[in-house]
Structure formats: C-alpha cells, structure tokens
Design goal:
Elements: E1 8-11, H1 17-28, E2 32-37, H2 40-52, E3 56-61, H3 67-78, E4 86-89, H4 105-131, E5 137-141, H5 148-151, H6 165-183, E6 188-192, H7 216-219, H8 221-227, E7 238-240, E8 243-244
Parallel strand pairs: 1-2, 1-4, 2-3, 4-5, 5-6, 6-7
Antiparallel strand pairs: 7-8
Helix pairs in contact: 3-4, 4-6
The protein binds NADP nicotinamide-adenine-dinucleotide phosphate.
Length: about 250
Amino acid sequence: MTNMEKTSVLVTGGNKGLGLETARRLGELGWTVFLGSRDEERGRAAADKLAAQGAHVVMVPLDVNSDASVAAALQLIRAHTDRLDVLVNNAGAPGHLVPPANATVEDIHPVFDTNVYGPIRVTHAFLPLLEAAENPRVVMVTSAGGSFSVVTDPEQPVSKMHELAYSTSKAALNMVTVRYAQALPKIKFNATTPGEVANRKFAATDMNNHTGALTVTEGTDSIVRLATLGPDGPTGTFTDRLGPVAW
Ligand SMILES: NC(=O)c1ccc[n+]([C@@H]2O[C@H](COP(=O)([O-])OP(=O)(O)OC[C@H]3O[C@@H](n4cnc5c(N)ncnc54)[C@H](OP(=O)(O)O)[C@@H]3O)[C@@H](O)[C@H]2O)c1
C-alpha cells in the first residue's frame, strides 16, 4: 500500500494540458497523485516526467466515457488506499463547433458523455473513497461557456460563438456540481473555469490550439486553490482565478 499519510488526489485527463499541470503542482506539495489517462502510453510518459521531478505519482488508465474503465481505475486505486482526499474532474472534450441549426444528437452525445456523464461516472464510483477522507473535495473543471450570465453577455466573445454541444454540456456540469454540493455536505463540490472571465482570457492548451493568453500554471490557479481548500472552505461555488463567476 502507498503511504496514505499523504493527501491523495485523482486527476482525470492528467496526461496533458491543465490536468497535467494540476498533477504537477499537487505532486509538488508532496501529495500522492493518481494521474488518470485514457491512453496508457501518454499517461505513462506524463507520470514518468512528474516522477523524475520527485513527485509520487501512480498512473491510472481511465477513460471517463467507460463504466468498465472507471471500475478498473477504482480497483487500482483501492489497492493503494482506502480513502481519496481530492478528485479533480478535469477531462473534457470540446466537440466540433457544429452550428446549432446543424447539430444532431450524434454531435452532442459524445461531448455530454465526456463532460457530463464522465464526471458523474467518476464521482459516483469514488464516493465511498471520498467519504472515507477527513476533508474531501471535488473540483469540477467547467467553462465560462457553461455560464448563462457569460454566454448572454454581448461583450463576451463566447456570446457570438454559435455551437450547441460544449456550452450546454458545461452548463449541465455546473448544475451537477450544485446538486451534489446540496445533497452531500460532507464533501466540497466546487466548479471552476480555468481562465479570467472578466478579462476574456483562457489558458493555452491543445483544446484551443494554444490560442489562450494564460499559461497552464495561471489556468490551474483556481483548480489548485479548490483542491487545497481547508475544512472551513466553501462548497457549491463557481469561480475562476480572479474570484466568483456568475452562473
Ligand atoms: N484551456 C482553457 O482555458 C479551458 C477553458 C475552459 C474550460 N477548460 C476545461 O479544462 C479541462 C482541461 O482542458 P485542457 O484545456 O487542458 O485541454 P486538453 O489539453 O485538450 O486536455 C484535455 C484532457 O482531457 C482528456 N480527455 C478527453 N476525453 C477523455 C476521456 N473520455 N477520458 C479521459 N480523458 C479524456 C484528454 O486526453 P487525451 O490526451 O487522451 O485526448 C486530455 O488529457 C477541460 O474540461 C476543458 O473543458 C479549459
């Protein structure tokens, strides 16, 4: 068994982008990092890189779209620990920017599978391990595109980005976060978008072809803040690195 005196975290989609940076930063704090990756080779390469920097990392094959993969990930993590302090539901899919008039269920479904059902699959499976922790925290990595306030603000570029899959999936994820927070007060559930909504800034990653103005370190500031909340921290919130974001 891993030395579970340490704080433990599972990061989904931990092989690159914001997930990898979150894993790196939490590993730097001395935590045990379960690095989820749907592709074992990419996950192994990422985990080896963090381990070479001194982090305690366990690579966990994890496709959030698959019940079987989530069950296998739970089994693997259970071999190391009987509790999980933090879950970062980071894995996300952008979809294909299909205009609403052309979008079909076939376009929407895979995006919901990853961005909505994925976090539900993983959260549901890991609830017993989270409930066994002293101060369990779940971070939902959502998007400003899932905020009604942001999407209906004509000053925000996303108000002119016509698509149906990604924004609706992240709006659903926001509600999922609130409903978990209300029903499970022992666990902190908080949503965050990895940018600066007021400044229309997001983090440069593969998902946006590296067009973001923020670094992945800046993009993960709010993820790390929510992952490291103390017992008196909030639940059911939506923030970015600057502070509260309107739902
Ligand atoms: N970048 C931003 O400023 C920004 C803004 C708003 C929201 N977000 C959110 O931040 C999160 C991370 O995105 P990112 O910007 O870091 O993008 P990214 O570099 O493209 O990373 C996405 C990650 O999700 C993983 N993933 C996708 N589908 C998966 C599945 N079915 N199972 C497991 N992992 C899966 C990817 O794995 P593969 O490598 O195998 O594809 C990758 O590790 C996402 O939820 C995204 O919606 C980012």
